[in-house]
Write a structure and sequence with these properties.
about 80 residues, mainly alpha, 2 helices, DUF3955 domain-containing protein, membrane, transmembrane
Length: about 80
């Protein structure tokens, strides 16, 4: 039962996170977009990453999806 909960939670995490990233890119919402820049100059190095908010939202939702899945399995 624990492995099924993990699979359901992990798949919901991945799908929700990807969906939020896609919505961010489709509607140009910066806090839901993933941007990556890398500039390597002779004198320095510059790196920038994107938003982690979709991952946080996906993690929270996957937690609740796992709890709902276990609750429905017990019924």
């Amino acid at each position: 039962m624990v492995s099924k909960k993990f699979i359901v939670s992990f798949l919901s995490f991945v799908l929700i996170s990807l969906l939020i990233y896609c919505i961010g890119h489709m509607f140009t919402i910066p806090m839901f977009m993933y941007r990556y820049e890398e500039i390597d100059n002779v004198n320095g190095y510059y790196m920038q990453s994107g938003s982690m908010l979709p991952l946080l939202i996906g993690w929270i939702i996957s937690f609740f999806v796992g709890k709902i899945y276990i609750h429905r399995l017990k019924q």
